[in-house]
Amino acid sequence: MDDLPIDQQLELLTTERVNPRSESIDTLSPIELVRLFNREDAMIADAVGKEEAAIAQAIEIISDRIRSGGRLVYVGAGTSGRLGVLDASECPPTFSTPPEMVIGLIAGGDSALRRAAEGIEDLPERGADDLRQIGFCKGDVLVGIASSGRTPYVIGAVAYARSLGASTIGLACNENSPLAEAAEWMITPVVGPELISGSTRMKAGTATKMVLNMLTTGTMVRLGKTYGNLMVDLRASNAKLVARTRRLMSRLTGLSNEESQAVLDRCDGELKTAIVSARCSVSAIQARERLRQSGGQLRLALESGQK
Predict the structure, then answer these.
(1) Which of 2, 14, 141, 147 can bridge 204 by disulfide, Cβ–Cβ 3.0-4.6 Å?
(2) Quick one: pLDDT at residue 305?
(3) Please, are residues 172 and 146 in contact by the beta-carbon 8 Å criterion?
(4) How many domains does the chain have?
């Protein structure tokens, strides 16, 4: 595909084709528009579902790299880049991860989050440069996000990551793309033509957001950031999260709100530590050690205290 003129490259992309179901979209009433949007969006989950094996494999790869001290790095341009930055930025408050564990890079830097920097996406060397600036290394894992599957900035970053021997995963919404040739593993939810031709912030963007949610959430579950479906490794940085932490503490220990808060205070607000301390009748220091020996898995730490 790279050998073809740009016009011919775009003609081969399903996301650039004209959607026959929206050819008269400019004549529709608001309710007709909404119904059309909903019908098209209903197809997205099926497209993502067809990639479940690839997504599961990616979760395993990312989990293994992070357990070994590596980082997950997203790289993308435009909407793809913004979605990667968004997903990365939500990990610290949700799962109490250090900000350097999951990083989102967008072509053009942080200013491109608000103002388009479309020209940068045509420069493959800028993708490699941005990875160098964060000290990207062999132990990290890169997820290159490009709905088209042909963004030079992303492909340049993927090629650089592979040259280091790092794991590379591509995420695109078009099959047989240059990104698929560049990355070791590929996730390709094919959502078909957009309602507005080429506007990949729509169906392709939604599919991308769904996959990224699965990658980080699945990884964090594997890393022990949840107990059942409860967020037990959240960071209580505001009143709502403080109340949620106290409520989870009460639910998992049977203590009153006041008793729960007292234990949390003794454990510096660390929910998992406080739960182990209360349920296993140990000090905060001993609770942290049990969690360390259990790889941060609350369930394993509690089971070890019951033996």
Answers:
(1) 147
(2) 61
(3) yes
(4) 2
One of 51, 121, 194, 270 is an active-site residue; which one? Answer: 121
Residues of the chain with pLDDT under 50: 8
Catalytic one of 16, 90, 259, 289: 90
pTM of the full structure? 0.88
121 is catalytic: yes
pLDDT at 2 (0 to 100): 57
How many other C-beta atoms lie within 10 A of the C-beta of residue 15?
24
Q: Is 11 a catalytic residue?
A: no
Is residue 211 located within the same domain as residue 151?
A: yes
Go through 265-280 and write b for each residue having 16 or more CB atoms within 10 A of its CB, e for each that does not: ebbebbbbbbbbbbbb
Residues 66 and 190 in one domain: yes
Same structural domain for residues 114 and 243?
A: no
**Extended strands (E) in the chain:** 72-76, 102-106, 141-145, 167-171, 185-187, 226-227, 230-231
d(CA 94, CA 247): 16
